[in-house]
Task: inverse folding
C-alpha cells in the first residue's frame, strides 16, 4: 500500500514539475513549442519548392516574436501593436484568411501570393519586407505558415482572377472610373478625395474587431498589396479578406475595372501620377463640369 | 448453406421494407412535435436605439429608430431570435434545394437570424438604393466579403460546414445578423412570444439544442413516442452586459 502511494506521489510530483516547466517563460528560443495543426507542407513558387521543416527554424528566428508559436498572431510583441494608432495586429495564421491574394474573395491565396507578401512586407504596419532572406528561405517560410491552419489540407488555393491587358489611361477611362468610384460608393470609406476619411471610415473594424483605417490615396504610400496598376486592380477585384475592403468582382466588369484603376491614380496627389496630369488638364479645360463625389442630395431638395 | 444465409437475411429485409412503408405510406400519423418557449432569468441588457444618421435614407425610414437585436426580449421574460434545432435523433434530413433567403432592407438584415442547412443554397438580396458590403465572419468556413451596389443581383452562395456565422456590413456598422448553418433542416427560430415548434418528428430519442447569439447553446434530451407532442422550455441566465 505504502509503495503504491509513493508511486502515485512520484507520478503527480513529476507531473507538477513538468507543468511548472511548461509554464516557465521561454527565454531560450529552442524551448518554444509549436502548435502546428498539420503535417509537413510544401510551397511552390515558380520552380522553387519550399519545405515547412526548413521554414520552422526560420519562423522561430524571425517571425515567432509577433506571430506567436501557434501562429495566432499573439506573439510576445503583439501587445505593443495598437490598432487604434493604425498599427495592425500580426496576422493570425490559424484562420487561413489573407489580405493580399490573386484569388477571389473567400479562396485561399496561392503560394506565390504569400511569398510576395513576405517579400514586400506591409507598409504602415510593423511587418517589414524580408528581401534580406533568400528566395529559398522565404519559400520555406511560406510552407511553414501553411501548417497553422487546416484549411490548407481541406481546400485548394483559389484560381487567380483573369486580368485583361491594361488599356491606355485616357481621359475617358479616368472619367468613367470616377463614375464608378461614386456608384460603387468607394467614397463611403475612402472619402470623396481618397483621404480615407469617408462617413464610414471611423467605425471600420477588421474581422477580429480591431479598428482599421481605409487607405489614404493622397499620401502616395504603397498600397497594402503592391505598387503597380495590376496590384491595384487585384486589390478591389479580390477584396482584402479579413478587412472591411470587399471584392467588387461581381459588379465591376474586368474591362471597366481598369477605368477605376486609372481614376484611383488621380487621387495620389502627392506623387503626381501621369493619370493625375491628364485629369487636371481636362478639369482646367472643362471648369464646373464635374459633379462632386459623395452623398447625393435626397430627391426634392 | 445458401438457404440458411437467405433465411438469416430475411428479417432484415422485412425490417427495412417495413420502415420504408412507414415512412412512405404514413408520413404524418406517427410523427410528433416538440414545442415550447425560450425564456430568461436575470436582467437582460438594455438594447440601444440604432443611429442611422450616416445613411439619411435609412434614418428617415426607421423613425422611431430600431433597437439593436443582440438580445430581444418579450413580455413574460421570453427571448426572440433563438434558434432551436434537432442536434441528434431522427432520420438524417436531406439538403433542401430551396434557397434560404436573406434580405438587406432599410439598413437592416431580414431576418436577423437565418437558419439553413449545410450546403443549402443561400441567396442574399438587397433592396436598398445604396451599396452594402456583405461580410460574413465564419471561423470554420471560408471568410469572404463582397460589395453589393444598388440593383445588383442576389449573391448566391452556400456554407459547407455547420457553424453560427456572424454577418456584418462594414459601411453600415449597425447591420448585424447571423447565419445559423445546421446539419439539419429541423429547426425553428423563436418568435416575439419566445415560442418555437418542431413538427413532423418521427418517434425517437432527440437532442434539442437552442442557440442565442449572446448566451450560446443549451441542450435537452427529449424522447418522443408516436404522435406525441412534448413541451419543453429553455431558460437562459442573462446578464445586463453585452460581450
Result:
Amino acid at each position: 500500500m505504502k509503495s503504491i502511494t509513493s508511486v502515485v506521489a512520484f507520478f503527480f510530483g513529476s507531473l507538477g514539475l513538468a507543468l511548472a516547466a511548461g509554464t516557465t517563460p521561454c527565454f531560450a528560443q529552442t524551448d518554444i513549442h509549436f502548435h502546428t495543426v498539420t503535417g509537413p507542407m510544401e510551397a511552390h513558387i515558380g520552380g522553387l519548392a519550399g519545405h515547412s521543416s526548413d521554414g520552422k527554424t526560420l519562423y522561430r528566428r524571425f517571425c515567432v516574436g509577433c506571430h506567436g508559436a501557434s501562429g495566432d498572431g499573439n506573439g510576445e510583441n503583439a501587445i505593443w501593436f495598437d490598432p487604434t494608432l493604425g498599427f495592425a495586429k500580426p496576422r493570425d495564421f490559424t484562420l487561413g484568411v489573407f489580405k493580399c491574394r490573386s484569388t477571389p474573395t473567400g479562396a485561399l491565396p496561392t503560394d506565390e501570393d504569400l511569398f510576395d507578401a513576405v517579400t514586400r512586407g506591409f507598409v504602415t504596419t510593423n511587418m517589414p519586407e524580408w528581401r534580406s532572406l533568400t528566395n529559398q528561405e522565404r519559400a520555406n517560410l511560406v510552407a511553414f505558415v501553411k501548417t497553422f491552419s487546416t484549411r490548407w489540407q481541406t481546400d485548394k488555393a483559389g484560381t487567380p482572377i483573369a486580368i485583361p491587358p491594361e488599356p491606355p489611361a485616357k481621359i475617358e477611362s479616368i472619367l468613367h472610373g470616377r463614375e464608378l468610384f461614386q456608384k460603387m460608393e468607394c467614397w463611403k470609406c475612402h472619402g470623396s478625395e481618397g483621404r480615407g476619411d469617408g462617413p464610414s471610415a471611423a467605425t471600420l473594424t477588421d474581422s477580429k474587431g480591431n479598428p482599421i483605417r481605409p487607405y489614404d490615396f493622397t499620401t502616395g504610400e504603397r498600397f497594402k498589396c503592391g505598387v503597380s496598376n495590376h496590384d491595384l486592380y487585384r486589390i478591389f477585384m479580390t477584396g482584402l479578406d479579413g478587412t472591411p475592403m470587399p471584392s467588387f468582382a461581381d459588379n465591376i466588369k474586368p474591362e471597366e475595372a481598369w477605368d477605376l484603376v486609372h481614376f484611383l491614380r488621380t487621387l495620389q496627389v502627392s506623387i503626381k501620377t501621369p493619370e493625375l496630369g491628364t485629369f487636371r488638364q481636362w478639369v482646367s479645360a472643362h471648369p464646373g463640369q464635374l459633379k462632386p463625389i459623395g452623398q447625393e442630395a435626397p430627391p426634392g431638395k | 448453406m445458401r438457404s440458411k444465409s437467405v433465411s438469416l437475411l430475411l428479417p432484415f429485409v422485412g425490417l427495412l421494407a417495413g420502415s420504408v412503408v412507414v415512412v412512405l405510406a404514413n408520413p404524418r400519423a406517427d410523427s410528433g412535435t416538440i414545442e415550447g418557449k425560450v425564456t430568461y432569468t436575470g436582467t437582460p441588457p438594455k438594447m440601444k436605439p440604432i443611429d442611422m444618421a450616416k445613411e439619411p435614407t435609412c434614418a428617415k425610414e426607421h423613425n422611431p429608430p430600431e433597437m439593436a437585436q443582440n438580445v430581444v426580449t418579450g413580455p413574460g421574460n421570453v427571448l426572440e431570435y433563438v434558434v432551436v434545432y434537432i442536434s441528434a435523433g431522427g432520420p438524417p434530413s436531406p439538403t433542401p434545394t430551396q434557397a434560404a433567403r436573406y434580405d438587406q432592407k432599410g439598413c437592416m438584415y431580414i431576418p436577423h437570424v437565418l437558419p439553413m442547412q449545410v450546403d443549402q443554397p443561400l441567396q442574399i438580396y438587397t433592396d436598398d438604393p445604396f451599396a452594402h458590403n456583405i461580410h460574413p465572419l465564419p471561423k470554420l468556413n471560408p471568410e469572404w466579403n463582397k460589395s453589393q451596389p444598388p440593383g445588383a443581383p442576389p449573391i448566391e452562395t452556400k456554407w459547407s460546414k455547420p457553424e453560427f456565422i456572424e454577418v456584418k456590413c462594414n459601411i453600415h456598422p449597425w447591420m448585424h445578423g447571423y447565419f445559423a448553418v445546421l446539419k439539419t433542416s429541423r429547426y425553428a427560430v423563436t418568435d416575439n412570444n419566445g415560442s418555437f415548434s418542431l413538427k413532423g418528428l418521427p418517434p425517437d430519442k432527440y437532442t434539442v439544442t437552442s442557440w442565442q447569439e449572446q448566451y450560446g447553446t443549451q441542450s435537452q434530451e427529449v424522447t418522443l413516442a408516436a404522435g406525441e407532442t412534448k413541451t419543453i422550455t429553455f431558460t437562459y441566465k442573462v446578464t445586463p452586459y453585452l460581450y
Q: What stands out?
A: Confidence is low (pLDDT under 50) at residues 1-26 of chain B.
